[in-house]
Write a structure and sequence with these properties.
Elements lengths: L1 H26 L5 E3 L15 E6 L2 H11 L3 H21 L5 E4 L2 H10 L6 E3 L19 E6 L5 H21 L5 E4 L5 H5 L6 E5 L5 H6 E6 L9 H8 L3 E4 L1 H4 L10 E3 L3 H13 L1 H4 L5 H8 L2 H12 L1
Parallel strand pairs: 1-2, 2-3, 3-4, 5-6, 5-8, 6-7, 8-9, 9-10
Helix pairs in contact: 2-3, 5-10, 8-12
């Protein structure tokens, strides 16, 4: 068995070497190279001014947010090892690029605090397609709250767990008809088995999230870990949803709290604010302007223009 493993390991190493040569040869044929994946950071022999590495989220910030809530010693050790790998990669290869690019000002500044030697760094924000994400005029709501995401991503899974185990059960105590819908692929069996079947609906993967956003009164995002900008917040704003979200959910977005963009940073705060806005929903929160706020700052046209300036 050891011999077989050794043979396959040798073959894998050789495949990586061949791939590296192949990618380098391909990339050398272009004037500008825009790289967005850590495994590709070491490839390409262009002069540094012609290369942009889009780090996107600060991986160190993401891992540190996991470590705050990680109680398993082995998993904690693995996370620390991954953080060490990312630190070494950035330290070793950052000089090979004319520009390092982040998804938000927050992530950029976080890494600059860890790597004081970083000089050529910038950020380009996420955007949202406002023609696609357009709310209907219907007020025929089927759900009180909605949360969405890919639940194989740890922050989304943790947020859904808080909804299933702690937030929704408390809301149901005062309102037995309370309904929550959780939209997105890869919800685990454990997550669904622990949910309240009559009050929490899991859709799994859907082709069009707009249908479900339209059917819910309030968008919630109880993320307690993560990094980068959250597309789900921009999409909910484009659909003119009233939003209750954690500070981490809003990170990277230049948004102030108001009647339609509320902050909650504990399960208890989410429970209290959800109850409050639902009681007053028809009278106080019917005239939402979140779509207008987002459109002024986060259209794809604006982000594409900023990106083009950086690449040029």
């Amino acid at each position: 068995l050891s011999v077989i493993k050794a043979i396959f390991t040798s073959h894998t190493i050789r495949s990586i070497e061949v791939f590296s040569e192949h990618v380098t040869n391909i990339l050398d044929g272009y004037d500008k190279v825009f790289i967005h994946d850590f495994p590709l950071i070491k490839y390409c022999s262009h002069i540094r001014q012609e290369k942009v590495f889009f780090i996107c989220d600060s991986q160190i910030k993401l891992i540190n947010s996991y470590l705050k809530n990680e109680k398993n010693i082995i998993k904690g050790f693995i996370l620390k090892y991954k953080k060490l790998i990312y630190k070494r990669m950035i330290s070793k290869y950052h000089r090979d690029f004319g520009k390092l690019l982040y998804i938000s000002e927050v992530d950029k500044e976080y890494d600059k605090g860890i790597f004081p030697f970083l000089q050529e760094v910038d950020n380009i924000n996420n955007g949202v397609n406002f023609e696609y994400f357009t709310p209907s005029s219907s007020t025929d709501y089927e759900f009180d709250i909605i949360f969405l995401g890919n639940f194989s991503y740890r922050p989304n899974y943790e947020a859904a767990s808080h909804l299933v185990k702690k937030i929704v059960p408390e809301l149901v105590k005062n309102n037995p008809d309370f309904r929550c819908i959780i939209v997105g692929k890869n919800p685990s069996k454990k997550l669904m088995d622990n949910s309240m079947k009559d009050n929490i609906i899991f859709t799994g993967f859907v082709e069009d999230i707009r249908i479900y956003l339209d059917k819910a009164k309030v968008f919630v995002s109880p993320l307690y870990s993560g990094a980068g900008m959250k597309n789900k917040i921009l999409e909910a704003m484009a659909m003119n949803k009233l939003i209750i979200a954690s500070d981490i959910s809003y990170e990277g977005l230049n948004l102030n709290e108001d009647d339609c963009l509320l902050r909650a940073n504990s399960d208890r705060e989410f429970i209290e604010k959800i109850e409050k806005v639902l009681i007053n929903f028809e009278s106080e929160f019917i005239s939402l302007n979140n779509r207008k706020i987002a459109k002024e700052m986060y259209s794809w046209e604006k982000q594409a223009g900023d990106l083009l300036k950086i690449i040029k």
